[in-house]
Amino acid sequence: MRNFFENEEESHVKELINRYESNLKNNGGYFFDVDEYEDIISYYLFNNKLTRASKAISLAIGIYPGNTEILLKKAVVLMNQNRNVDALKILHHILHIDPGNSDAHLTVGDIHSREGRHESAILSFKRAIRNAEEPEEVHASIALEYETLNDYPNALKHLKEALKSAPKKDKILYDIAFCYEILEQFEEAVSFFNRYINNHPYSAVAWFNLGNIYVSINQIKDAIEAYDFSTIIDDSFAASYHNKALVLMDTHQYKEAITNFEEAILREYLEPMGLYYIGDCYRQLGAHKTAIRYYEKATTQDPNLAEAWFATGMLYEEAKNYPQAIANIQKAIEIEEYNTDFLYYLAEIYHEMAMYPEAAEVFNKLITITPEEEDAWLGLLEVQRFLPPDVKSLHNLIEGIKYHHANDHLLLAKLTILAYLKGFTKEASEIFLLGSSTSEPLLFMLQFDEYPILLKDPIIKKFINTHPKRS
């Protein structure tokens, strides 16, 4: 559809719309020819004013009842109103009159695509290619349908056809690179983009995508060179600076990475993430105060950047500033409630500060999120040692570990020890019997060596006598 705000006819169309709307308001009898009606309807469609488009279509059909362009626009309105059956009736009527009508085939394809009938959409789009004014757009639509069907080889085929029709269209290059990446055909992608660059050496987008592909196959020097060519050709290409900075960062060239992140930020590209990465670079360089400053700049620009809050918290923890560490990590968890890395780190800080109830609460949350993970259970067992005896908490631990880790000798041993230390000897004996019947009974028993007092228990003594340690 024509973009009425990005072409030389903008003033003409605005004048036409003003004249048309004034005519409606005054019930005038001003005559509009069919081309003017097409422009009026297209303007309303472009601005998603379907009611006004429908009104203009009704008036136009009253004057030009057999005009296929007006009927086609009516079908488009019906499609956008989810009246697909009515739209298809009109489109089939148009195609009966004009079987080669490319726009009608395209609209039929759009309807099939919206309804999830992607194979049918592809057939309709293919019928549209022959007479299409912009065949590259049709090939791109076909490629998108194939991508939806996870048929990336055919998607790639049609994207290459699209590029033949529009060799300098950047979006097609991005889509081709995406397909190669999904197919993991990196060597083929390198060959393709090098051939393209031979014919179009000043395509900054081609150099950029080539750089990304080189990163995928760990050809770092070539990647950096490709990004450099991209920014030499187009100094405003912020993504190239950013991606080059990521490569430099991954290869521990932190000062050079900072320079390139700054170039990207100057061009207003991913500013919060760029600031966060600069903070990471300074952290790696040991400049922790500067790193915190950049992390805080990142969270000022994007308060929902959880990674920056977390990174700030880690640096405060390293500096033994636990209140600030906790505050920042809690903020990260508010944003990403189920991020287990954040939760583990917070639990360990609480443990280190002897804030055992708080640590237990976090470990319990971790167990709820990932009950299959041994570390969360071990963490909870550890902090429970420092809490008052609580039979309910112990029973919850017993039931949880029996359900999720019934054959885990380490967890069962730690649970047995906890129960004994808290005075729950009956429960301890039951857990001990369960642990001693695991597939690793001797490894289970090794956990008790640090607690000789427990070895005096009759049940444990009996087990030791019947299961001597292997030398």
What does this structure look like?
The protein is mainly α. It is 75% helix and 0% strand. The protein contains 27 helices and no strands. The chain has helices spanning 10-25, 34-46, 50-63, 68-80, 84-97, 102-114, 118-129, 135-148, 152-165, 170-183, 186-199, 204-216, 220-233, 238-250, 254-266, 271-284, 288-301, 306-318, 322-335, 340-352, 356-369, 374-384, 391-404, 409-421, 425-436, 441-446, 458-466. Helix 12 (204-216) packs antiparallel against helix 13 and helix 15 (254-266) runs antiparallel to helix 16 (271-284). It is elongated, with a radius of gyration of 34 Å. The termini are far apart. The relative contact order is 0.03. The model has no long low-confidence stretch (mean pLDDT 93).
Number of strands: 0
What Rg is obtained from the alpha carbons, in whole angstroms? 34 Å
Mean pLDDT: 93
Sketch the major β-sheet: none
Task: Quickly give the structural class.
Answer: mainly alpha
How much helical structure, as a percent, in the residues? over 70%
- What portion of residues belong to β-strands? under 5%
Low-confidence stretches: none
Quick tags:
75% helix; 471 residues; 27 helices; mainly alpha
Kindly summarize this structure in a few lines.
By secondary structure, the chain is mainly α.
List the helices and strands and how they pair.
Layout: H1 10-25, H2 34-46, H3 50-63, H4 68-80, H5 84-97, H6 102-114, H7 118-129, H8 135-148, H9 152-165, H10 170-183, H11 186-199, H12 204-216, H13 220-233, H14 238-250, H15 254-266, H16 271-284, H17 288-301, H18 306-318, H19 322-335, H20 340-352, H21 356-369, H22 374-384, H23 391-404, H24 409-421, H25 425-436, H26 441-446, H27 458-466
Helix pairs in contact: 1-2, 2-3, 2-4, 3-4, 4-5, 4-6, 5-6, 6-7, 7-8, 8-9, 9-10, 10-12, 11-12, 12-13, 12-14, 13-14, 14-15, 15-16, 16-17, 17-18, 18-19, 19-20, 20-21, 21-22, 22-24, 23-24, 24-25
